[in-house]
């Protein structure tokens, strides 16, 4: 791995870690339920991006498949939580 790519991946992982900590604070302190749902959705996005950066770093395709699964589960859970907030039930 070249030194520039190593530095860029370390920098990206540090930025995602800092952003995840800030989003976690919003998740815990969010005044409304919508803020908490949005923060949880952002945590899924950050997790997906971290997995993709690690996949680039180790040059493995398995990490990209894992990122796709994280994105899929993140979308489904965000949709379920939004429906629960709107209607009070998930399954009709």
Automatic annotation (TrEMBL):
Keywords: Antiport, Cell membrane, Ion transport, Membrane, Transmembrane, Transmembrane helix, Transport
One Pfam family here: MrpF_PhaF
One GO CC annotation: plasma membrane
InterPro entries referenced in this protein's UniProt entry, alphabetically: MrpF/PhaF-like (IPR007208)
Protein's name in the database: Multicomponent K+:H+ antiporter subunit F
Membrane topology: Multi-pass membrane protein
GO terms of molecular function: sodium:proton antiporter activity
Compartments in which it is found: Cell membrane
Domain of life: Bacteria
Family statement drawn from the similarity comment of this UniProt entry: Belongs to the CPA3 antiporters (TC 2.A.63) subunit F family.
Residues spanning the signal sequence: none
Residues passing through the membrane, by range: 6-25, 37-58, 64-86
């Amino acid at each position: 791995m070249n030194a520039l790519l190593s530095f860029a991946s370390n920098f990206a992982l540090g930025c995602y870690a800092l952003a995840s900590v800030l989003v976690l604070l919003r998740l815990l302190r969010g005044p409304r339920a919508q803020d908490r749902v949005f923060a949880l959705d952002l945590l899924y996005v950050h997790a997906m991006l971290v997995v993709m950066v690690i996949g680039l770093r180790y040059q493995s395709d398995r990490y990209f498949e894992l990122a796709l699964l994280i994105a899929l589960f993140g979308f489904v859970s965000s949709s379920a939580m939004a429906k629960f907030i709107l209607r009070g039930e998930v399954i009709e």
